[in-house]
Amino acid sequence: MIIVKITGGLGNQLFQYALGRALSLKLGCELVLDISFYPLQTLRKYELDKFNIKARLATTTEIKKAGAGNNFTAKLVRKLGLTSLLYQNYIKELESFSYVNDIDDCKEGCYLDGYWQNPKYFEAFKKELCEDLSPVAPISAPAAKWLDKIKSTESVSLHVRRGDYVKNAYTNSVHGICSLEYYRNAIEHIQQQIDTPIFYIFSDDIQWCKDNLNFISNVNFVDDTCSVIDDLALMQKCKANIIANSTFSWWGAWLNSSQGLQVAPLNWFSFSDRNSQDIYPKLWRIL
């Protein structure tokens, strides 16, 4: 087996699962998920169980044996950066987006700790991941109505991430938010590719979008879905996608079969030296 540490919101969880699933298929072994992060959290919750994933949850013993427990000693070892030295099978990602070459030599028994936001880790297994990441339960009735509209039009999803990107000072300093100029340029690009596109707006602050994106023609504000699972399912069914600097909308675009009709922001982070296009598939348009 291999164990993957699952942390963060849904978008991060999907990246972590995708890496683990790709490795389990490559090695022909069981995938096990360490979700010990979530009992200590109030803002985030584990959501991979909403999908048809092929993995089981790690036991406390398995987590502790890997050097990843929440006891004092394990936390101290991690804080000192000694985990990989004391536990040879513990692979830690040290830099966002950069491909970790140790993954190529990963064997059964490895414990993987990181965000793994690089599609090179799993792009060879897209078919399997699209099957795994289909929702267990049907989408809600409101979402089903939106799906009918999306399938019958030249649909383009446009995602605006605000929430903690605006309200939390630290998160805002790290990520910032996509500018209106970015969205104007993205819309112009899509209009050059698709005749009479219909835009479907997804956001955690839909009222802000109604107030500030009223310059868009042929627009629908998706404001009555019941969960992020609904929104993810709808975004991936659109014929094109305009994403924010958000792992959530990244997955809405990556799970889409319309390759080459995805637009993404040049800046993922506020600090230019942290930005990298390695997070994007080669065919996406970066603006």
UniProtKB/TrEMBL annotation:
GO terms for cellular component: membrane. The keyword Hydrolase does not apply. Keywords: Glycosyltransferase, Transferase. It comes from the Bacteria. GO terms for biological process: carbohydrate metabolic process. One of its GO terms (molecular function) is galactoside 2-alpha-L-fucosyltransferase activity. The keyword Glycosyltransferase applies. This is Glycosyl transferase family 11. It comes from Marinomonas ushuaiensis DSM 15871.
